Amino acid sequence: MNFASGLPDPRTIPKNEIKEIIAEAFEIYGYQVLQYSPSSGLSKLVKEVIKFVYRTRGLRANLNNVIIVSGSQQGLELVSRIFIDPGDIVVVEEPTYLLALNVFKLRKARIVSVPVDDEGMDVNVLEDIVKDLKKDGKKPKIVYTMPVAQNPTGVTMSINRRKHLLELAEKYNFIIVEDDAYGLLSFDYEQPPIASLMGLNNVVYISSLSKVLAPGLRVGYVIANENIINKMYVLKQFMDLGTSVLGQAIAQIALEKGVVDKNAEYAKRLYRLKKNLMIELIDGMFFSESWRSNPKGGFYIWVKLNKNIDTRKLFEQSKRNGVIFTPGANLCVNTYRCLDAMRLSYSNPSEDEIRIGIYRLSSLIREMANVS
Amino acid sequence: MNFASGLPDPRTIPKNEIKEIIAEAFEIYGYQVLQYSPSSGLSKLVKEVIKFVYRTRGLRANLNNVIIVSGSQQGLELVSRIFIDPGDIVVVEEPTYLLALNVFKLRKARIVSVPVDDEGMDVNVLEDIVKDLKKDGKKPKIVYTMPVAQNPTGVTMSINRRKHLLELAEKYNFIIVEDDAYGLLSFDYEQPPIASLMGLNNVVYISSLSKVLAPGLRVGYVIANENIINKMYVLKQFMDLGTSVLGQAIAQIALEKGVVDKNAEYAKRLYRLKKNLMIELIDGMFFSESWRSNPKGGFYIWVKLNKNIDTRKLFEQSKRNGVIFTPGANLCVNTYRCLDAMRLSYSNPSEDEIRIGIYRLSSLIREMANVS
Q1: Inside any domain, residue A98
Q2: I want to staple A224 with a disulfide (CB 3.0 to 4.6 A). Which of A140, A161, A228, A369 is the partner?
Q3: Do B239 and A77 touch (CB under 8 A)?
Q4: B200 and B297, same domain (yes or no)
């Protein structure tokens, strides 16, 4: 039972449609689908991405605002290479996405965290931090946020906080790095990305097709102002010359034919069902002191046990029982605050695995807490 | 007429075989071909790469010595991230591969060049440089070389120089970064890579399937000792989570079925013909003072006009006449030494384009040199 991975449910990967799309890609592109292409991405794909983010996210972009990348992760890497020098201040949510944290650490950033509550990043806390920094003549270089279906809490930032965040970015002159990986997997109603509210001036928007089409294609995109995108073109060329052309051609046709839109709808419904199942089981089985987030979308639930249980030790035990998850400490800057927390992913395991796994996990937790 | 690009000849991209291989990949891997995979690469592909480099290049490696990368370029990026800190000394051949030079510069390396002659990098010059550095308590961190069919000269390093280079690496404790991108496109007889001569101790070997199968798949590999590969696993995960799984599955099956081996043989014969054609035209049409390299493989001829002609100016003129190439200054550390030089690529243009393009180019050169 793997509650640790961020792998999509196999049912959300439209294998047969993609097989057909590949045949079409060979028809349309011929051998070019296997040749080098520009580092910035296939222009036909860029055009489809522009239409896609407008129709699904209300985000306006033109040809000079987009670069195709090898998944969101490469977008984060490009951001960190362009904006972060050693010692620069990077603000992240706490808890946050592990591999973003690692990328920022690798650039020797000074990482500052802002807690997440039911309305997302606590922007008032951020404001205090930014004001304090200003007194020392400092400011954050970037603020990294996943405003919709945040990883690992699943919470979505309220519209007021998004606006507040944008005001702070403008006033204190920092860049908001908006990771919208789960933006199309919002369970209740669509939430506009920050980048769509007041233009691209202070926002770098990153997303991908990994959660709504197929992660193995490694196709994502960054949308930002032209200056930033131009810098990314150059760096991207040095890093890998360009993203898999076959993957790009598949993405282009899947977007054009509406396969991605349709598939995202299906995925969203499936993940909502699985989220509801896991939540029901947690609420029924975990002891009453424990707390869980209320995911508005995405792949994950954040659980705080509120008992003196180190989830890294729990992990060792549960692993022997065939259940893995992500210990909270891995996802926090202030690890001590997250020692009793854990991220549970419902995206990849089957419904039966969710039932069995949560049962085993709750038994182990009760054992460790000496609660019967 | 594009003599500037490093694109393979479309005839060397086995489109129909790859179409069939994709169908097989869906049979064998199912939806997994579209799912996330380990950052280190598909283990079945790693095994095929090990067999492939042994049977074609005599290079021995085990499972811990290999990482799959998104093309050679990503291999260079990983090398530079792992070995180079600002101010570190990196030795390159002169002339060399532009995007390697740029990657090293981006890491703020101090770049030192060693000239290339008909036997490849002049290792005696390198020895002098290394001895001088040692007097100041310094040494190169890495020495970057393309020993077979060097880009842009096409020359192959003699076996004595390769051994000499290895001795220096051992004695002065530096890493040889061996870029074998054109290693399977050696026109006369196979030349063993440096990494196959005395084990992997001081060598990082980089190659890819871009020139012998299809560049659009973005599949390459780095072979080195386990310590280095382990560092690359971690970095690669931060950079893009992993290489396109579909591309990896195609590569695995193409290697297993011998499609790559067969295709490389075909490509080698085709490029030899095109090289001979271009050489014949250059020798017949360029004026007698000019000098050209004698490529032993690969995609390129290096021409030195030995006249007071700046090839960057020539480029502007020839571009207007529909002929582009790479001015030599772009490929040199000491640009002044290469002002009258140019790289001419015969890989992508058709035979007719080569005939017309070289004719136009020679006319322009004669005009600029006032030679009739």
Answers
A1: yes
A2: A228
A3: yes
A4: no
